[in-house]
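Tokens help. One example:
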Amino acid sequence: MQTSGLTLHNFWLSVRIAGYQGCMALLLDTAVLEPDQRTDAFVDAMGRASVPCAIHLETPERVSARMNVWNLGAASLFRSESTGMRLTRTPRHLRSASMPVLAIALQESGIGHLDQHDEQRRVPAGELLMTDLTSTYDFSWSGTGASQCLYVPMDRLGLPIETVRDAATRPHHSNLYPLMIAHVRELFRCADLLDTDPAAEQLGEASIELARALVTSIAHSNPDASAPRSTLAAASIRRYIREHLHDPALHPARIAHAHNISLRQLYKICSDNGFRIEQWIITQRLQKAREELRGPATADLPIATIAHRAGFVDAGHFSRRFRLAYGISPTRWRQLRDSSSATTSD
């Protein structure tokens, strides 16, 4: 399909951005492909590395690209270098299920252009771009460009989505802006070593914490759109829950006491920020267990032990909740990881 000299490819596959298993993956290097294979390979690789969107190529007959992804636990890294391209996420794409993600990207070379939330931004090399992947957007560069992107799951930020979206339009308003640029740059400079480090998951958590600090800092810098006090309280509550997931005694009354608020205030803060505290605790425990079941460091641990480490008292209850949430048993999920690792080794 030709549109203004561009070839348009629609990609509808929904993926979990932070769900790559194993170490660094070379998603694409068109230099090793035949010319007639490169366009389809580009579309497939970009589709697997992003949310559902329409993918346009500026020069499909001369497309050149290299893409890599690295896993840091809940966070992930994606680098793309290519000839001119354009990614368009429309309302139709939003109906495809995909994980809510904030993309924090450092433009490595070329000039990026983003149109989102009625804001048009020009991003030269060396500057940071924050993109809300839960909304429609149009991102492109012409000629040859490269981007280094840190993917952060929205639910791990523990902030209202409107606060995140507002912050994404003006990242340079925070004093933490240069720090985030330096952090992203260093992550990619050492990416091959970092995702094989035993502390890779902890590094991912630290990156998420920095992203949360950046968003909160931006929210405070805007007197016309400052986050309500309950927003910061909700972020603190979510952080406390994550730090104490392993404790079966974690319950709303204890959380309220730790924050010097009443149980009624706790429920109101959670309601005002769009989540139910009991369900959120269960969801976080399931995610923690799911990640541990996928990790090589816990390959020899019984599933019941992993369930207990995530705060579940009863292994049977854990298995039922896991299957209900993910449509697969914990045992089968671990088997899929093992088979994936074996395929990678082969």
